[in-house]
Design a protein that fits this description.
The structure holds two protein chains of two kinds.
Chain A lengths: L1 H16 L5 H6 L1 H4 L2 H10 L6 H13 L13 H5 L2 H29 L4 H15 L2 H15 L12 H30 L2 H8 L4 H39 L4 H11 L2 H29 L7
Helix pairs in contact in A: 1-14, 7-8, 7-10, 7-12, 8-10, 9-10, 9-12, 10-12, 11-12, 12-13, 12-14, 13-14
Chain B lengths: L20 H20 L1 H23 L31 H37 L1 H15 L3 H12 L3 H10 L3 H15 L2 H8 L4 H13 L1 H24 L10 H8 L8 H28 L5
Helix pairs in contact in B: 1-12, 2-3, 2-12, 3-4, 3-6, 3-7, 3-10, 3-12, 4-7, 5-6, 7-9, 7-10, 8-9, 10-11, 10-12, 11-12
Classes of the chains: A mainly alpha, B mainly alpha.
Chain lengths: 297, 305
């Protein structure tokens, strides 16, 4: 995992180093940036005059200490610019994951248990549609119907519980559909397993068999999937935050891109990557808990 | 010859039959089976029709588009759909129908080439890792892990910051953060094929490494990679339009669905047709590719149904 983070930070650092554009000019305002003395001071301040490896070591050592440097544009520490925004994004992501799990599992279980029934067909159709509707379309549609037309929820911004409903649904829709499909597939497979037949044969009720034997064994691939899908979730959060003007790090990233505010971009992308790696580590640990056959090394 | 595994056939397109007649016949029949299974799947056939329609529009856009997609008319901006402009006009008075039609070109080109590029990189690196093993394997897989740590959209933003906006940068950006999946898939399927008897036979006959990999190992391990490729074209189109939507995709004025939706959303609530039509086009295309991809997967591996 450390190796992954090292490799990822290297990719990030190299990409940002060969970035075109003039960060100094952006920081100083283009007029003053022409003054060599001002440039020199700023280059020293941001350590842009040091060789590449030195800059990298500096960057990583500060990163580890939680010091993300200073925003070129806003002239204040990145951590201060982003503070509070992490909470907003985490809130949105958590709400979305919760929805994914609840809607996805429920739909998948219903479809598998009542295979070929009306509900199964309904779930299959809905999930196929949901997967085909990109986040930016789904978000606009939800916003148009439930905020603009019906006025049930606020159209944008972050204020109170009602404001999170539409963004969370938008972010969750594709993954919820994929979770439902996956759950249906694995459950159908597990339902055919020998131990399920044994459980049925020894006279357990269908309810007990499904709750005790089938569910626990079907949920493992879903957990793996949620780990992998966390990356897509982060990407989707960028779009969702943009649509609903949700004041999280995704919105900060999009703003920083137009302003060429590199330290903010570095920070957001780094945290995104770190979060992705950590979530997948947690998923690996969750396996051992869900499936005693898997031992952590 | 009886040892030829079933999945050789699935790759008929990639590895044309090279052996004596009997093998050729086996391949043909298997391929026919897959085709029959594919065409029995209604959704897959509908998807194929949808994709074919999008291809046709993309190909013929310059001929069938009623207007020049760049032609502005500042006296008729944000006009609702009418006989003259079926999809209305945008904030610069450009004909939306023509722009949606031209937008399909970018979607199709980016979707296909980015996935082809990702498959190319993935196949080369995946087969090196899988077949050579040892140090090469661990180096390639560690590099893949590092790239895999980037969510595609976030990684792509990074690349486009470096290269600037444009069609080619978008293709590169998507491919760079997608190749890890086909590489991993191929590596693991090569690991199982590598020890097969027919590979050992080829080796003991003195075949070169290159020949063994290209003639025996790859054709037998490519199936999952190709399925992944087919299923991912839709995802690549979503990524492309999402990048443009966020303002880091193709250049701002280019007729592209993501661009159109982003600028159309400025009129959200009172000129909704501006974002609805390009959105419909995107959903239609993505759904088409998903239907075809799913159909192909089910046809290649009926056990998954």
């Amino acid at each position: 995992m450390v190796l992954v983070l090292f490799g990822a930070s290297l990719i990030l650092f190299v990409a940002l180093f060969i970035l075109p554009g003039d960060p100094i000019g952006t920081a100083a305002g283009s007029e003053r940036a022409r003054d060599p003395a001002v440039r020199a001071v700023l280059e020293k301040r941001y350590a842009l005059d040091k060789p590449l490896p030195v800059q990298y070591v500096r960057y990583v050592s500060r990163l580890v200490r939680g010091d993300l440097g200073e925003s070129y544009r806003q002239r204040q520490p990145v951590s201060r610019v982003l503070r509070g925004r992490f909470g907003a994004t985490a809130e949105l992501a958590l709400a979305a994951i919760l929805l994914e799990v609840i809607i996805g599992l429920a739909a998948g279980i219903i479809a598998a248990v009542f295979r070929y029934s009306f509900w199964d067909v309904a779930v299959t159709l809905t999930t196929t549609l949901a997967i085909g509707v990109p986040t930016y379309v789904g978000g606009s549609i939800l916003q148009g119907i439930f905020a603009q037309k019906l006025g049930w929820f606020p159209r944008s911004g972050r204020a109170g519980f009602s404001s999170i409903v539409l963004p969370a649904l938008t972010l969750a829709s594709v993954d919820a559909a994929l979770v439902a499909r996956l759950m249906r597939g694995t459950m159908l497979e597990v339902l055919r397993a020998d131990y399920v037949r044994t459980a049925m044969a020894k006279g357990l009720s269908k309810r007990t068999v499904i709750l005790k034997h089938v569910l626990r064994n079907s949920v493992i691939p879903v957990v793996t999937y949620l780990g992998i899908a966390f990356g897509t979730l982060l990407g989707g959060a960028l779009i969702t935050e943009q649509i609903f003007n949700w004041d999280g790090i995704g919105l900060a990233l999009v703003t920083a891109i137009t302003a060429q505010d590199n330290p903010i971009i570095i920070a957001v992308v780094t945290y995104g990557v770190a979060a992705f790696v950590i979530v997948n580590l947690v998923v690996d640990i969750a396996y051992a808990y869900l499936d005693p056959r898997i031992r952590l090394e | 010859m009886a040892m030829i595994p079933d999945d050789v056939a699935e790759l008929a397109e990639v590895a044309p039959p090279v052996g004596p007649g009997t093998v050729g016949i086996a391949v043909q029949t298997q391929f026919g089976d897959i085709r029959k299974r594919f065409f029995r799947n209604k959704l897959a056939v509908i998807g194929l029709g949808m994709v074919a329609f999008v291809f046709l529009v993309a190909l013929l856009a310059p001929v069938i588009a009623p207007h020049d997609p760049y032609e502005q008319n500042l006296s008729a901006t944000t006009q609702p759909p009418s006989g003259a402009h079926w999809f209305g006009t945008d904030e610069l008075g450009r004909d939306q129908l023509s722009r949606v039609m031209f937008g399909s070109r970018i979607a199709v080109v980016v979707g296909l080439t980015s996935i082809l590029l990702a498959l190319g990189i993935g196949i080369v690196l995946g087969s090196i890792a899988g077949y050579r093993g040892g140090r090469a394997d661990s180096v390639v897989m560690r590099v893949a892990d590092a790239f895999f740590a980037f969510p595609v959209l976030i990684g792509a933003i990074l690349i486009i910051l470096v290269t600037g906006r444009g069609v080619l940068p978008v293709i590169l950006a998507i491919a760079i953060f997608t190749w890890t999946v086909p590489a991993r898939l191929l590596r693991s399927s090569i690991l199982s094929v590598r020890e097969a008897e027919y590979v050992e036979a080829a080796r003991s006959l003195g075949a070169s490494k290159w020949r063994i990999v290209t003639r025996h190992v790859l054709p037998n391990s490519l199936a999952p990679v190709l399925v992944y490729g087919m299923v991912s074209v839709g995802a690549a189109i979503v990524a492309e339009t999402a990048l443009s939507f966020l303002g880091v995709g193709v250049k701002p004025n280019v007729p592209d669905w993501g661009n159109m939706i982003a600028s159309g959303r400025a009129f959200f609530g009172y000129r909704d047709f501006l974002w609805v039509f390009p959105s419909l086009a995107a959903v239609f295309t993505v759904l088409g590719f998903i239907f075809v991809g799913d159909g192909l997967r089910d046809a290649l591996d009926p056990r998954l149904r």
